[in-house]
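User:
I study polymers; will you set down one protein's sequence and backbone structure tokens?

Assistant:
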Amino acid sequence: MNLDRPCESDLIDWISRHTQHFPSSIIKNIGDDCAVFDPRFTPRLAVTTDMLLEDVHFRRRWISPYFLGRKSLAVNLSDLAAVGAVPYACLLSLALPPDLTPDYFHSFMKGFLEEGACWHAPLIGGDLSRSEKIYVSVTAWGSLEAGDPVWRSQGQDGDKVVLVGEIGLARVGLEILQQEDPSQIWKINSENKLAQWAGDSFRYRCLKAHLLPKALVQVGSWLCRNRLANAMIDISDGLASDLFHIACQSQLVAEIEVEQLPLPEQAIGQLDPLEAALNGGEDHALIFTASQEQLDRLSSSYPTNFPPYRVIGKLSGGEPSLYLKRKGKQEKYEPRGFNHFR
């Protein structure tokens, strides 16, 4: 490889030399015009795609290429978790500015491939190009091994709203990055170094939530397999916005009990913890709705190694809308989560 100006084939060869474990149904992976799999040997497939654009979804000076590689795949796997699918394989389209060195590419791909290996989601193809800013687009497939997918639209009148995972920390992590000197953070490529740079456990949890989100794949597939969720979504735009999606598609009213929310323990700068929890986004926690009978089954069988769950609200009949309930009073709420076109 020419270390100064590698060509596309050099980069593809570099990826191909890294061992991956492919499902037996994959007939052809990297190295041809198309990847090919035999659908007769797979369950039903779910597919999702997501983009990460420099200066829209991330700042280059705030995230190392290794962390960006991991995050690029993780946010897609979180979408698979939201319908109950298990990761199967992925495609990557990556465009990089010409001023970046091959080391940036290598570090990005190291993170991406390691994240894929964690979830048995091998990279089977994609595209490489040049652009003025970093552009990442991932398509991920997941298999639905048992049961039907969990849709946003199947919430039922009387369902409880259940949260798995933490909310607000990713937004606090972004606030920390905005207030700190970024001259070192983009070089950090391990969780241990991130913990050292953070300085305390709360800051570390927040920075990790923002830079290295964890897709709750096992939780989502378990809920689907055991039919314990009527509707489900992952929190990417913000708790309020994403729960409102369930309310609209299920044609129901959603209510959040503020006192039941796991708010960030500390405030950073002028950021209100409740605002971070409701509208911060990028948490990649799961919210799902379940009947009382499903909740009873959940309480007796929920795996102890999963993140804790908590009931944070309910669905009821009426015009699709979102309400906050605090101190016994209910008020209509307009979500203010992330919107690309606002």
Remarks:
- The CA atoms of residues 336 and 342 lie 10 Å apart.
- The first helix runs from residue 8 to 16.
- Residues 152-332 form a domain with the Phosphoribosyl-aminoimidazole Synthetase; Chain A, domain 2 fold (CATH 3.90.650.10).
- The chain has ten helices and 13 strands.
